[in-house]
Design a protein that fits this description.
alpha+beta; about 425 residues; 10 helices; 3 domains; Helix Hairpins; six-stranded antiparallel beta sheet; elongated; Heat Shock Protein 90
Length: about 425
Amino acid sequence: MLVYLQTKWQSLIFRLLFYFLVSILALAVVLGISFAKRVKPHVQNEILPNVERYIEYLIDDIGIPPDLEVAQRLADDLPFELRIEGQGVKWSSSTRLGAISRYRFEAAPAPYDNVYFSHHGRSEYLLIELHGYRYLFAVDNSFRRGQERRHGYLFVFLGLILFALYFAIRRMFRPIEAISQQVRRIGDGDLEQSVEVHGKSELAMLADGINQMSSRIKSMLEGKSALLLAISHELRSPITRLRVNLELLDESEIRQKLIEDIREMESLVAAILESEKLNSRHAPLNLGRCALDELLREVVELHRCRERIETRLSPVVLEADQMRIKLLIKNLVDNACQYSQAQDGAIEVSLGQDRETISIEVLDHGIGIAPEDIPHLTEAFYRPDSARQRGTGGYGLGLYLCRLIVEAHGGGIDIESSPGHGTRVIVRLPLDNS
């Protein structure tokens, strides 16, 4: 319950409703106190003067000692009930009136001597002590009932106003929910949708500003993608010519280094082109049934570090893009080989599945990765400090490509690592990724 309230408290509408409820309760308390203070003035100003005016006539009619038949007749004819106690008399005109000792009384102000009043339940009571007898009058409280009805109507009316204000405020702040959803979509990379704008309020202006921001971000990202694709395409031709010309030169150490640099550039261009193709919500996948265990085994057998790799593969068949899954596995194994040495132990590659997912796991026992770098490893061109060395190579696109391939298949990728203890990369793919 506490977690639910903490979550709801983040809602502006919920907080406004809470403030309204507090306000209405405070108003109810004020009205209740005001109503309670009306009781005493009502008794003093309206009841006491009338009782004092007729008290001698009533006592004379009842007589001393009291004539109970006369007292009953007066109680039947007049708007009060009566109880008499004293000198062996304990009489009541109604069974509703109990012993006088049951009630707590307050002395009436001067000049009303020997007069006391009380409130009990829904009635006001007056106690008169005279000639050794005590007369308890239960006075008609129609005024109070009328006040209670009016207060009840007032509370109902205020409640209706509260609900009307709630729905009006909810309608007024409804754009906030749409704006919040749009901001989340932008954070997730969805820039296709926009917030519907109605009117010219501040919230409408905010929604329009977010739409413009989304549109500009989309334009910048599209421009960046177009620039990368154009540069990559344009680079392929001169790189190919350079490589052909280098192949025609005589064998030498410089020639071999130049050829290796050209291959690196070709790999970089190919990775950029592939990442831009996959970096789309509708990435073109060439899906087909493939045996993942055989695919993994094929990649491992052709890999340069195959002697260091141990496999634990369960038979798994999946609808997937075979070429991109091979690229995924190759990149993961490449990283494991680059950042671990033969003396660190074997690189472990495993494949398994449960009811809903398939898991591919690559574990090495190499240098590991600092905790602050792990969240950024799947970002484009990101390399931790330990990888920014010529000996390890790479441009920070390997794990980025892996993430894009996995997400294109509807899966996710997790990385666990600690410096000096190696790295574990776990890829989870849904069995049904249609």
